[in-house]
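User: Could you check the structure of this?
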Amino acid sequence: MVLAALTGNFGMGKSSVLKFFDGLGAVTISCDAIVSQLLEDKKVIDRIRVMFGDDVIGDSGCLDKKAVADKVFSDSEKRRRLEGLLHPLVFAEIDAAVSNPDYASRVVIVEVPLLFESSAAARFQKKITVHTSEEEAVRRLMQKGISHGEALARLKTQMPISEKVRRSDYIIDNSGSPEETQRQAAAIYKQLVSLSRIS
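Assistant: Sure, the predicted structure tokens are below.
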């Protein structure tokens, strides 16, 4: 197995690139998808309620994700506390998934938004960073309904993309067309498949 991490910053297209890798034949795992599932777990919701108060719980008893986001993106200490709760749970799910014996000779790519911020990079044999300009990332986030100020605030909570690029084995420039991005993903996947046959 070759275990690779896919990262980048908000609005730079990690999820789209993960779908390209899935289409190419990689086993793909999304940390965002795992977090979404965890945030529907009653035990996790109860722990977040204790951390942040009843105002993060909606009328139905479900987590108000926007209320949580408003708190953690404006307060670094609260963000660290939430990450301290979620990260071990997320990586326990990833470890369980990649232990599948059917993946022994496969390329497995895990989308990890906070790969370097969480010191998780050592878990992976190869690191792939997707990047665009900050201006393009803000534009894409605004298209999703996030305000300009919120978009900038979210980007500032992450390591500069230039540093992530520097620390990575492979780089994907997602500033151009989807076809250009897909060609870059295909070239990287071909190399990872070659490595999986050696390992």
